Amino acid sequence: MKVFRLIMYMVFPIIMQAQSFISPVANRSQYAIALFDLGEGNHFIGRHPAGGGKTTAFMAAVYGENSLIPGGEKYVNFSSGLPVSPGCLHFQVDYAGAGDYDEMQTGIGYSRNLGELVQIGVRFNYYRLHIVGYGASSAFPVEAGAVFQLYPKLKTSLYVYNIMAARPKGEGLGRIPTVVGFAMGYSASKSVGISVEIIKESGKDVSFQPIVFYQAADKLFFSGGITTNTGIVFFSGGYILGQVRLDISSSYTGSLGWATGLGLQYTLPSKKQP
Fold it and tell me: Could you read off the pLDDT of 192-211 as tens digits, one per residue?
């Protein structure tokens, strides 16, 4: 039974989490959102290491996700961004668990703009995995990324998770993958954005992830896409009410069924310049 649980952990969570070792399944646009700013107030913290370069006021967000299959994985994230001069400090906490295993990652990062056309960022993480009967292991993976404005309507981004190829210490985990992601995003109009991500995880096939972003109204927005190597179809919608942003997301894959997520973000009002 212990061997079966270990195999289940090694196969299913890594398949589901192609963008970093711990990442959401239903809300898979948290890297590509760094390529767009569809409407005032629509900036989302996201997961891209360089995504905080646009942050002008303190932000804090919580996101939770649940697989609808019996015994499926649960995922929770807390993130925040604090503008500093020059740039932004950001903090992430991720937790995921199912059955006899759970994993946690905390990270602190810094991002900033380099002029009008480039955003860069880096995040230092502590990762820990625990499997009942096998003990725990930990590592310190580092991730870094950049966003480039090539043309007024075209951006590209690059990010690398575990750029230093950190190795886990302890029992229960054989490796932490290095994940490289490249994306291009085109703003077709003030309300529509289209992106394509190319994701390569060490030891796995290349995955493509096209996503469409749509700002239906000033405070109402949607996104949806597919991840080719796992067949995950995902979509989400959100609404801004004052300083609060609410996101609802869902995904489906034939082998693992449905997953649903709910996110809430609060942004302090920006200080007015005298």
Answer: 999 999 999 888 889 999 99
For residue 12, tell me if it sits in a domain: yes
Cβ atoms of 19 and 33 within 8 Å: the answer is no
| Other Cβ atoms closer than 10 A to 135 | 12
Report residue 34: phi and psi, to 5°. Answer: -65, -15
Please give the model's pTM, rounded to 2 decimal places: 0.84
Cβ–Cβ under 8 Å, residues 261 and 63: yes
- For residue 32, the domain's CATH number is 2.40.160.40
CA 218/CA 213 separation, integer angstroms: 14
CB-based contact 88:108 (threshold 8 Å): no
What gap in Å lies between CA 39 and CA 217, rounded to an integer?
9
DSSP string, 146-158: EEEEEETTEEEEE
Question: How many independent structural domains does the chain possess?
Answer: 1
Q: Is residue 121 part of a domain?
A: yes
Domain contains 131: yes
Q: For residue 233, what are the domain limits?
A: 2-267
CA dist 159 → 49, 156, 211 (Å): 7, 10, 17
Q: Which two tokens stand for residue 50?
A: 């360089």
In a domain, residue 273? The reply is: no
Q: What single-letter amino acid sits at 115?
A: G
